[in-house]
Amino acid sequence: MTMVQVRPAPAPARRSVPGRIRVISGITVASLALLFAALAVGSSSARDGLRVIGRDAGPQVVASAGLYLALSDMDAQVANLLVIGRDYGPRRAEALKQYDARRVEAHRALLEAFELSGDNEAERQTVRSVLDGLGRYERLAGQALLLNDQANHAAGPPPDDVVRTYRTATDLMRLVLLPQAYNLTLESGTIVRRTYDEKALMVPLVRVAVAVAGLVALGCLIWLQVFLARRFRRVFGPALMAATVTTAVAMIFGVNVLSQDERALRTAKSDGFDSVLTLARARAISNSMQGDQSRYLLDKERADTYEHTYLDKSLSVVYYEAGNLSTYHQQVSSGTTGGLGMLGPELVGRDGAKVMRAYQDFQRADAAFRRLVTDGRANEAVAERLGRTMTAFGSYDQALQSMAKSHEQVFERAIGTGENALDNLWRLMPFAIGAIGLLVIAGVWPRLKEYR
């Protein structure tokens, strides 16, 4: 009988150790990949939010708000010119210069809005419509100014044919062009708000995911080191320890960057963009208010309408419970708003108090101007309109611009801080990935070679 010699099976321990090392190493590498994938997703989401708010839709909102201001001031300057007549030569030259400057600003703002609209055909069509309407308005305004020059009237209400032509122009501006310009602001503002809401939810979630993925990766690295130390009866390898430290640093740095970007988005939106937009709208509406003063003086048939329009705009800027303009003037002179109206939340601190004082002066000047008109003292009313009232409005407008500039600086700093933090993260990530990968290989490969 032939005896079959059976070889003893290899030791299970020697056969399973390389496999277990590979499995644990694979899990560790997968956890590291998850960590860096979470960092990539989070930083990409934050950068997209900063781009939309800081470089895309945000500037488009400001540009369209500037368009509203330029258009409303064009109409106000035409009204001023019609009221001035042949008198007040320096004021007339200044109004013409201001009209031309605002016309250039309007065309520039339309061009910028068109470029920033990208592939949004609806916004592009709105811009084209405003541009076409602006051309019609300029022709009508030019006709009114030509008729006004031909009439050669003294300061005060112009002849009826001038008023009728101007009515057509101002109706086109107030009923068509300004609403369209405002719609551009609303459309872009909706994009900003939607983007902020998405990123305000997404970035914190991804930050938590980065922290969890980082802890899992650290746990896997420690597991790998403990297994190798016990199996080979050696102290922890320096390469894997360095990989662990590098991973911890990458996780902490990534979480910190995402936290910075979350704060930057919140600051840019709440303390920068929202205030800049509010002040831009307030400036545009206020500018239209002072135009209503001239319209109130030049068009007797629509004087009551322009007075009510002025009151409605005033209530939207700084709100008080008032049923008529006289009561509103009294309420404004009495004190602060308590946070009501468009400017209510902005009227805090030293800058806010300065704006409120300037607004009170403007409304007091308006009350004095209207008393002269009511008393039939047209020449004095024109002098008041072109003198104290216009000076008071200039101070108020300057205060708004100063406050807006400070918020613009907050906005730009926040966007710059967020983008710089992301740039630093993206510069360091490739080095971190490469270093950790090489360190893991350096820590595992010598152990695997022992089984060859």
From TrEMBL:
Q: Does the keyword Membrane apply?
A: yes
Q: Which UniProt keywords apply?
A: Membrane, Transmembrane, Transmembrane helix
Q: Which residues cross the membrane?
A: 201-224, 236-258, 425-445
Top-level taxonomic group: Bacteria
Its name, as the record gives it, is: Secreted protein
